[in-house]
Design goal:
By secondary structure, this protein is mostly helical. Helices cover 81% and strands 0% of the residues. It is built from four helices and no strands.
Length: 125
């Protein structure tokens, strides 16, 4: 996020409310969604916020491509940022998969508990 803010300082002033605003907003959204998701009570909610974070990360990626094509950033900066995005995307995807497994585990446990309750409530013959 900090790298995006530093980089966008060099964008043309007429982009202040355009690409500069969009890429900064998306970068902030990545970390904000991860943090907000961590504070949620269920794995499903957490996974949803992680998914939003991943979407925002890919939004940053597309905006960096646009900035590069518009020659607001040079080849080296674009390459460096693409590498940073990959370094965030891989563990983020791993975290999403981990939370998904936690969510499945809870669902399995709930189904087992419901089955146990139904069996306990059946009349004994």
């Amino acid at each position: 996020m900090v790298a995006i803010y530093r980089l966008t300082r060099t964008f043309p002033s007429d982009e202040r409310f355009g690409l500069t605003h969009q890429v900064r907003r998306a970068a902030v959204s990545v970390v904000s969604n991860i943090a907000e998701g961590q504070g949620r009570l269920s794995p499903g909610e957490w996974r949803q916020f992680l998914s939003h974070a991943r979407g925002s990360l890919y939004e940053v990626q597309s905006q960096i491509i646009a900035a590069h094509l518009l020659e607001y950033i040079d080849d080296a900066a674009a390459k460096r940022l693409r590498g940073s995005i990959r370094r965030v995307a891989e563990p983020l995807q791993g975290l999403i998969e981990y939370v998904r497994e936690q969510e499945r585990g809870r669902q399995t446990t709930r189904l087992q508990a419901a089955g146990n309750r139904r069996r306990a409530e059946q009349p004994r013959g």
